[in-house]
Each structure stands twice: as C-alpha cells, then as structure tokens.
Amino acid sequence: MRYRLTFVAGLAVGYVLGTRAGRERYEQLKKSARQVAQNPAVRNTAETAAQQGRQVAGKAYHVVSEKMGDHVPDSVTQRVRSLRERNTNGTGEDDWGTTNT
Q1: Phi/psi of residue 97, nearest 5 degrees
Q2: pLDDT tens for residues 9-61?
C-alpha cells in the first residue's frame, strides 16, 4: 500500500509540475532529447551496447544450454541461431534497421 501511495503522489507532483512548466518547456525538452538521440556519438554507443548485449546473450545461452541440456525451448534456440547467422553474415544490422557504423 505504501508503494501505491508513493506512486500516486509522484504522479500528482509530476502532473502539477508539468502543467506549470507549460507547452513551451515541453517542446524545448523534446527538442533537446531529439538532438541527443541524433548525436552520432550517442547512436554509436547505443549500437555498440546492443551488439555487446547480443554477444553476452549468446554466451549466456551456451552456459545455460550446457547446464539444462535439451530443456531449452525451440523458440529460444531458433532466435539464437538467427542472431548468430546474422552476425556471421557480416550484415551487423539489428531489428530496427540500424547498423553499427
């Protein structure tokens, strides 16, 4: 109950502060966020982190599959195979159509 009350209080405070800031401040924050997201350094860092995450997931899959044997669902094994094939083919493209450049 305490967490719900805290959550509702946070929503109320956010709403009040948001309405006081107004539309102009919202647009300014939106523009700043867009500029950060379009920054090449930020994009490269995000893509590198995604690629490293895929590599770590593949290693974790091997460790888990060795311990679990045939208990890994087919959907998981198919997804890992498709990721592995995509990375070995050299495309380097992720699910969102971006590449690690």
Answers
A1: 85, 10
A2: 888 888 877 776 677 777 887 898 899 888 999 889 989 998 998 888 888 87
How does DSSP assign 13-31, residue by residue?
HHHHHHHHHHHHHHHHHHH
Q: Which long-range contacts (CB under 8 A, 24 or more apart) does 45-51 make?
A: 47/94, 47/98, 47/99, 47/100, 47/101, 48/100, 50/94, 50/100, 51/92, 51/94, 51/100
Judge contact between 44 and 101, C-beta under 8 A.
Answer: yes
72 DSSP 8-state letter: S
CA 82 to chain centre: 19
Q: What is the pLDDT of residues 53-89, one digit of tens each?
A: 888 888 887 887 777 766 767 787 788 778 777 766 5
DSSP E strand boundaries for the chain: none
- Taking the C-alpha atoms of residue 16 and residue 85, their distance in angstroms, rounded to an integer, is 50
